[in-house]
Amino acid sequence: MKLHIVNRSPASHRVHEQALAAMGPEDRLLLIEDGVQGGLPQLVRHFEAIAGRLYAQREDLEARGLLGRCDGSVQVVDVDGFVQLTEQAEHTLSWY
Amino acid sequence: MKLHIVNRSPASHRVHEQALAAMGPEDRLLLIEDGVQGGLPQLVRHFEAIAGRLYAQREDLEARGLLGRCDGSVQVVDVDGFVQLTEQAEHTLSWY
Amino acid sequence: MRYAILLMGAPYSDQASHSALRFARALLARGHRLEAVFFYHDGVYNAARLSAPPQDEPHLTDGWVALHETHGVALQVCIAAALRRGLMDEREAARHGKAGHSVEAPFELTGVGQLVDLSQRCDRLVTFGP
Amino acid sequence: MRYAILLMGAPYSDQASHSALRFARALLARGHRLEAVFFYHDGVYNAARLSAPPQDEPHLTDGWVALHETHGVALQVCIAAALRRGLMDEREAARHGKAGHSVEAPFELTGVGQLVDLSQRCDRLVTFGP
Amino acid sequence: MSDEHEPLAGDLLVILRHAPHGSSWLREGLDVALVAAAFGTDVSLLFMGEGVTALVEDQSAGALGQKSTAPTLEMLEMYDIETLWVEAEALSRFGLDPDELMLAPRVLEAGAIAEAVRKHPRVLTF
Amino acid sequence: MSDEHEPLAGDLLVILRHAPHGSSWLREGLDVALVAAAFGTDVSLLFMGEGVTALVEDQSAGALGQKSTAPTLEMLEMYDIETLWVEAEALSRFGLDPDELMLAPRVLEAGAIAEAVRKHPRVLTF
Question: What fold, for B2-95?
């Protein structure tokens, strides 16, 4: 299992498509920074293909006022959870 | 008439959509840097709405090996032509 | 016509600085006047006095200095954007109690007000973003 | 586990440096070891010794130095990326015939080979891009 | 286009296209708007693309305590920056309701954006 | 997935996603690939997104004479970097025919990209 990290919004960039193309069936995807916009109900459909394997960083959602708006299908993790995801993954890939 | 300048590729970014949304019926659009990818026949359809008002910078096409591939609907100008476009326009807006 | 350029990309990281310098030379060649280049956002890194690009690549900082010397182009660096990015002249270094400096004349640290002023005074303001 | 971080965003221009520093602190808090932070592309600007952010904003350069002092984290700056961006230590300044320097210990100028080495030696390499 | 449907135009239109926290663009664009206003320029602001998220309520400090831009936005009125526009298309892309945004911006449909740009003698994009 | 359909995997996969000239990403990514190869690492390269335009023929120096990356690409073989992949989807987006590209890269369909990534113990994205 690899962990993919995306820090750009699917509203403006196609970076998330590159991450999705590179993901294997067990891989997980973590949204950080402006990438957490992808957790909004209107944008989360871009990640339908990886339902159950989508994460978003809590601190970044909070700072942007988006924590309460994040779709229920997204698993919200704090920075400690981010480190745990990297522990569990054999490798991480960043898409920026 | 305003001159809009776009330096990002329509293959990866939605910046060109912002430029198009801001353009009036007389405005012109100049593609520079990675933006010149938008002159490729496969990508130039993004600029259909402004046919006849689309320009691309020759030196940037040349450096990328794209000069011979640029669609015939695009008006190719060198940097002197870029300056002329700014002379003719009452103002320029850059989208990056 | 009187032009000003707003440059917001870091040198060597993206093409913005190269495009801006090329455009500056072309407008001067057409007989226009370039009042100033205003360096903002990562564009302020163009003012780093210690930059040492490989010899077979264009030296952007020297390119700006040459424009100043030959055509009197003012090189105005936003002070707020510069200080947080490690760019300060001797005066700011003294004020911050630091030895040494990373920006020197003809680059001048100035406020965003200069940009507003340029946008009013000049016939054309052309922005080069990253 | 042994971690390394690859940081490629300029400080204050985008969040990459903040995210990387936050992640570094969190992994150390979980008992892991952080071998090094490798600064590449615009990440090298984190090493600018003269950076002076407003007092109510985090001082990123100091943040990296603190990690070095407290946890022995190596701060490795790609020399090729640094030199063209105006970042050099005393030794490189002397070699280029320039007075002054913009990078100092504990930041060390090093080659890309160090990044390759880190990617082999460490259990995890996490990249923070702009 | 008839005059009565055109938005009121100032001297300078500042277009903000970036989200808070992810980069310094929003802050640096706002700085230009505030300084221009302090110099007596009649400034209009247009939030476009990701920039519309700058108006979401309940923002707070960033990863390492970086300041939020929300307090700066609340100062706009003090600087007499009263023309605030937000792009309709971006709102719908993000699923944001204009009524839940800070500062009660006026929503601009696609055609109105070009009109706003046309009416300003100077435009800066951030 | 059966082994016979999987691409040969090296130690390090370097993914290049940026066009030449517009930024330094392509050059800096290639530098990492070359140094890794010089250190004895078995390196694979994947050109993805705008990165596929790095393989267009007839490139030349940039705006102010900046070096082209094409000569560096021609050195890859000398460094024993022989696994070169290009993203099929990006080629079709740009309307590029694989036969007209430099270095005769192998075209990877969508599924094969994930497979290539999975098989490499280390991946760096530029």
Answer: Hypothetical Protein Ychn; Chain: A, (3.40.1260)
